[in-house]
Design goal:
mainly alpha, 3-stranded antiparallel sheet, 3 strands
């Protein structure tokens, strides 16, 4: 080999240039001498990642502290407003019942509280993609026209247009589900059941449709089918006020008050509300347990001071307990109420005048000969509560999808 001043040599046989690597003598006694540099580089990267994670954790902690401060401020603001309302009410400068009624009305006017039950843009795409017929162009034309009418708030024309589309595809689960939910919310039981039956047949795993269909079957008088669907909804989808209340109303139709009591207790646990306490109070009254009835009815009134029906049944319960003064106070609220509660007002006036309990007090607005609307019939407020809960469950499912 010929020496080269650049630290290279030429091979004597082939003339190839060879590079000489000079290693320090100390490196002979170090294990993995060239790996040490690589390990040092990894340690530097790990240290950098640790620093970034530490800074991120600090920022998350600061965000959490800010959220806690905001929640605390919100709580204090709420407590202050509540205290002001209490003081004004005690001073006679505020009508608590009117305030509660106005508050409920404003809450229902908030976006998402009423109106459409499913997001329109994703739903339109789902409906079109689920088409299984042979005339996609006509189907898509009806669907697009229907949703355009919805966007223009022309619901009266939008629904018939979408029904034309539904007639072109009897297996379109999203479309039939949407129409079924619309008619369920409108209280049109026959149409709701028809579309929901088709939706469930096309998509047997749709638990929100199962719940709405169970309630619709109950209103249609098909109690066995309703019980089956509502129990399946609870089993697969979980507890809900609407399902438990529906089962309780079916037992009330059969005058099985003990079974209804069990279902209403579960309904209260699923969603504590003035309506749930009122329903329990009515059942306890029917069972002759006036003190427990009064307890739940007072709770309902605490949650909504404008609940006239709760005042009515509370007055009757207190009359049974021989608490005349408190009974007269509760029944006087019913007599002086400005809401349209004629079915309670006449009985309340009679009870105030005679001091006697009505022989057949109007609770749940049902009678022994009813064959339809076994769940949502009679009491409009309870019907609205069960529909809102059932449709609310539908909105949650749609959002998660």
């Amino acid at each position: 080999m010929a020496a080269n001043p650049l630290g290279q040599e030429l091979c004597a046989r082939c003339g190839t240039r060879l590079m000489l690597v000079i290693e320090p003598p100390a490196a002979r006694y170090e294990e993995s001498g060239f790996v040490a540099t690589h390990e040092e580089h990894l340690l530097e990267r790990v240290s950098a990642l640790e620093n970034r994670l530490t800074r991120m954790m600090d920022r998350l902690q600061q965000t959490l502290d800010l959220m806690l401060k905001q929640a605390k401020n919100t709580y204090y603001d709420h407590a202050l407003i509540d205290s002001l309302i209490t003081v004004l009410n005690e001073a006679g400068a505020l009508d608590m019942m009117k305030l509660n009624a106005l508050w409920r009305e404003r809450c229902q006017q908030e976006p998402g509280a009423t109106g459409e039950t499913t997001p329109r843009v994703p739903l339109r795409a789902q409906i079109i993609s689920a088409y299984s017929g042979t005339d996609l162009a006509a189907f898509e034309r009806f669907v697009n026209a229907g949703f355009e009418l919805f966007n223009n708030n022309d619901v009266e024309r939008a629904i018939p247009t979408l029904e034309y589309a539904a007639a072109l595809d009897l297996n379109n689960a999203p479309l039939h589900s949407m129409l079924g939910e619309h008619f369920f919310e409108a209280g049109k039981t026959v149409l709701a059941r028809d579309y929901l039956e088709r939706a469930l047949a096309a998509d047997p795993q749709n638990e929100r449709v199962r719940l709405l269909l169970g309630l619709s079957c109950g209103d249609a008088g098909d109690t066995e089918r309703a019980r089956e669907l509502l129990h399946d909804s609870i089993k697969h989808h979980g507890e809900s006020f609407a399902a438990r209340y529906g089962l309780g109303r079916l037992f009330i139709f059969e005058r099985k008050w003990i079974d209804a009591l069990k279902e209403f207790k579960c309904a209260l646990a699923a969603r504590p509300s003035a309506e749930a306490h009122y329903a329990l109070g009515c059942v306890y009254y029917q069972l002759g347990r006036a003190r427990l009835a009064a307890r739940h009815l007072r709770k309902a009134i605490e949650m909504d001071g404008s609940y006239v029906a709760a005042f009515y049944v509370l007055g009757l319960s207190l009359l049974r307990l021989n608490e005349s003064e408190q009974s007269r106070a509760a029944l006087s609220v019913v007599c002086n109420s400005e809401t349209d509660e004629n079915r309670f007002r006449a009985d309340a006036r009679r009870a105030l005048r005679t001091g006697k309990i009505p022989t057949n007090p109007k609770m749940f607005g049902i009678n022994g000969v009813a064959k339809k609307e076994l769940i949502t019939g009679g009491d409009q407020r309870l019907a609205q509560a069960v529909r809102q809960d059932a449709l609310g469950a539908s909105r949650v499912d749609n959002d998660s999808n």
